What does this fold into?
Amino acid sequence: MIALYMSLIEEEEQQNKFEQLYFKYRSLMFYIADEVLHQAKDSEDAVQEAFIRIAKNMDKIGDVECSATKNFIGIITKREAMKIYDKKKKRREIMESQLSQDSQGNETNFFDHIADKNSSEVNQVALAIEELPYKYSSLMTLKYVLGYSGEEISQIVGLTQNNVRQQLYKGRKLLEKILNN
It folds into this structure.
């Protein structure tokens, strides 16, 4: 399977980096996806989609070992798992008239590298971002914590730039409400 992903990458150096990522993070990625989906087959599908998205965005990944790379991979994986979850949820809602499952699973903390800083304001903002719905918190993490541009985020998560801007705007408004309470 790794050969399929590597065929999406042209440069040999990037292929080597992808291979390192693959073997280092595939178990973590499966764990993240399974926390959302609770089914091995669906989790595997989410991880595969995440690897494809990562392969297409290898130029945005620096050191394999750094926390920013781990966060980047975690965000991509969780977004792919959420897409599968949302599709399955919509199908169940159509087939059953009620859905008895929670829409929220345990959130994975992607702010470990921020928590090390001794700034209470930074920690307060990081905790407030974690309270946001995942579709907003993941984009805000990519934008404000990891420093990606709107265009890069749209490529990473597969949304239009306009949609990314709108979701970031809504996320900032929700964040403002949380911080003002």
Summary: The CA atoms of residues 71 and 110 lie 6 Å apart. Confidence is low (pLDDT under 50) at residues 94-118. The chain has nine helices and no strands. The first helix runs from residue 2 to 6.
